[in-house]
Amino acid sequence: MNQTSDWGPCESCKWWQVEPETVPDKHILGQCIDEKLQAFELSLSGDSGCNRYMKGQPAKARGAGEQPPVAQPTR
Ligand code: SF4
Q1: Are 32 and 15 in contact (CB under 8 A)?
Q2: Closest alpha carbon to 33 in 12, 18, 48
Q3: Burial of 74 (0-12, 13-18, 19+ CB in 10 A)
Q4: Distance from C-alpha of 54 to C-alpha of 63, rounded to nearest angstrom
Q5: Is 1 a residue whose pLDDT tops 70?
Q6: For residue range 3-34, what is the model confidence (pLDDT) as tens digits?
Q7: Which of 3, 37, 51 to mutate to test the pocket of ligand 1 (most atoms within 8 A of CB)?
Q8: Which residue is closest in CA terms to ligand 1's atom 5?
Q9: Nearest CA to ligand 1 atom 6
Q10: Which of 13, 14, 29, 65 has minimal CB crowding within 10 Å?
């Protein structure tokens, strides 16, 4: 895999948002609420990732795991 130094997985990114009752891991779906990416309504599993990664706890909101995601960004 060709990773840049900024790349990281959604599973541990503060811009990943998942359903409130879920424990974030690589197999569940969530949405990306990064300010520049949220317009694309990305639906991503925990082992997805990108170079806008920022280490932190994923956010939680109902509807984040739907396809397409319907939750409002909480950050
Ligand atoms: S797509 Fe990138 S910015 Fe969005 S949650 Fe995943 S790693 Fe974070």
Answers
A1: yes
A2: 18
A3: exposed
A4: 22
A5: no
A6: 568 999 999 999 999 999 999 899 999 999 99
A7: 37
A8: 16
A9: 10
A10: 14
